[in-house]
């Protein structure tokens, strides 16, 4: 896609996201737009950056390694939003500004052991019950892990992330997002989480519902870049 078209789409989506956030009676800046750039070249990311879009999401370490400059050498904030295997944890920490898809206590322990400075993460909750999805399987599993994660020296849990049900109807989708928000509120009451603010939910097909349910970060790929090939 041409840079001009990409920027026009960005402006359009950014405007609608702000509008939806205002309708939900929250300040427009309370919902951030994350551009999901998987399968798209770094040049396309830079074209968006020139139009003010600085937050990006990638879902694979390998792809990120191949196309992204190092953390210190780019003007972009790029988070990992796809499942992370333990054996790629070190690379992921070096490459991404935040890991939004921490989905097991084992992975959290591994990350904490590999870094020396505070590092931000989100915990992913499976709110749809679909077996194929990653994420802690329910709130009990999430809270069991949080009991230990809050004591870890380096990990800073900034919030929760989820994916809406695949092809779910509006009711099922809203229910999933609502579950994430409720777990977020309960976690906030129960644990000592000094910078816990992010509810990452909503993608191209369901972001308005996510904002209505309290999303603070919508992850948009297709609606911005157009359809992906292969995946
Ligand atoms: C690909 C992806 C998105 C974006 O999906 P679109 O439907 O293309 O907007 C959001 N979140 C995650 C975790 C993804 O892998």
Give an overview of the whole structure.
By secondary structure, the protein is an alpha/beta fold. Helices cover 42% and strands 16% of the residues. It has one domain (3-224): Alanine racemase (TIM Barrel, Alpha-Beta Barrel), CATH 3.20.20. An eight-stranded parallel sheet has the order 7-6-5-4-3-2-1-8. The longest helix has 21 residues, at 3-23. The relative contact order is 0.15. The structure holds pyridoxal-5'-phosphate. Residues 36, 38, 59, 81-82, 163, 203-205, 219-223 line the site of pyridoxal-5'-phosphate.
Key features of this structure:
231 residues; 8 strands; alpha/beta; globular; TIM Barrel; single chain; 8-stranded parallel beta sheet; binds pyridoxal-5'-phosphate
Number of helices: 9
What ligands are attached or bound here?
Answer: pyridoxal-5'-phosphate
* Count of domain modules: 1
Query: How much strand?
Result: 15-25%
Please tell me the CATH architecture by its name.
Alpha-Beta Barrel
Helical fraction equals: 40-55%
Largest sheet descriptor: 8 strands, parallel
Radius of gyration: 17 Å
Order of helices and strands: HEHEHEHEHEHEHEHEH
CATH class reads Alpha Beta
Q: What's the average pLDDT?
A: 95
Task: Name the structural class.
Answer: alpha/beta
Rough outline: globular
Count the E strands.
8
CATH homologous superfamily designation: Alanine racemase
Adjacency order of strands in the biggest sheet? 7-6-5-4-3-2-1-8
Q: The CATH topology, please?
A: TIM Barrel
User: Alpha-carbon distance between the termini?
Assistant: 18 Å
- The low-confidence parts are none
């Amino acid at each position: 896609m041409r840079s001009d078209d990409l920027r026009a789409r960005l402006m359009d989506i950014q405007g609608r996201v702000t509008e939806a956030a205002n309708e939900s009676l929250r300040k427009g800046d309370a919902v951030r737009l994350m551009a999901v750039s998987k399968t798209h070249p770094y040049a396309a990311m830079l074209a968006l950056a020139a139009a003010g879009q600085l937050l990006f999401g990638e879902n694979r370490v390998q792809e990120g390694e191949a196309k992204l400059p190092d953390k210190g050498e780019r003007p972009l904030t790029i988070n990992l939003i796809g499942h992370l295997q333990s054996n790629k944890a070190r690379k992921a920490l070096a490459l991404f500004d935040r890991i939004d898809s921490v989905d097991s206590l084992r992975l959290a322990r591994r990350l904490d052991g590999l870094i020396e400075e505070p590092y931000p993460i989100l915990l992913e909750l499976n709110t749809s019950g679909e077996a194929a999805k990653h994420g802690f399987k329910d709130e009990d599993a999430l809270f069991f892990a949080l009991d230990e994660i809050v004591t870890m020296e380096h990990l800073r849990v900034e919030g929760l992330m989820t994916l809406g049900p695949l092809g779910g109807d509006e009711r099922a989708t809203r229910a999933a997002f609502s579950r994430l928000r409720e777990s977020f509120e309960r976690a906030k009451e129960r644990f000592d989480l000094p910078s816990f603010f992010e509810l990452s939910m909503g993608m191209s097909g369901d972001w308005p519902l996510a904002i209505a349910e309290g999303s603070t970060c919508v992850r948009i790929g297709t609606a911005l870049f157009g359809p992906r090939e292969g995946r």
